[in-house]
Specification:
Elements (H helix, E strand, L loop, with lengths): L1 E7 L7 H10 L4 H9 L4 E11 L2 E10 L2 H9 L1 H16 L2 E7 L5
Antiparallel strand pairs: 1-3, 1-4, 2-3
């Protein structure tokens, strides 16, 4: 699983994450990138969860692959690497902290 957690640096505008992701998903390149990723061998799912609780608002984005080889192929893809880097830069400019991790989940 490739996971990114997004958290606003301040809680002044609790809708900042929703606005941020609406901007991303509305971009003309979003659908082609997601469609290509979904067609990748071993792709299982992409999910986005926005969580509001007493500690504030955060969003967690996860992309899951069914096996380690497929996941490693995804990680090595320069286009996807650039997309994650761009996403982190965009989040930073909007006042959102972004922490990206790669997780191997054994079932």
């Amino acid at each position: 699983i490739k996971q990114a957690q997004f958290k606003p640096r301040t809680d002044v505008d609790r809708d900042i994450l929703v606005k941020f992701f609406l901007n991303i998903t509305g971009h003309s390149m979003y659908r082609p990138i997601v469609d290509e990723m979904c067609a990748s061998p071993g792709f299982v799912k992409k999910e986005l969860q926005v969580i509001d609780d007493a500690s504030g608002t955060r969003a967690i984005s996860r992309i899951a692959f069914g096996d380690e080889d497929s996941f490693n192929t995804y990680l090595a893809h320069e286009g996807y690497q650039s997309t994650w880097e761009y996403l982190a830069i965009m989040a930073d400019t909007e006042g959102i902290d972004c922490e990206v991790t790669n997780l191997i989940v054994e079932e």
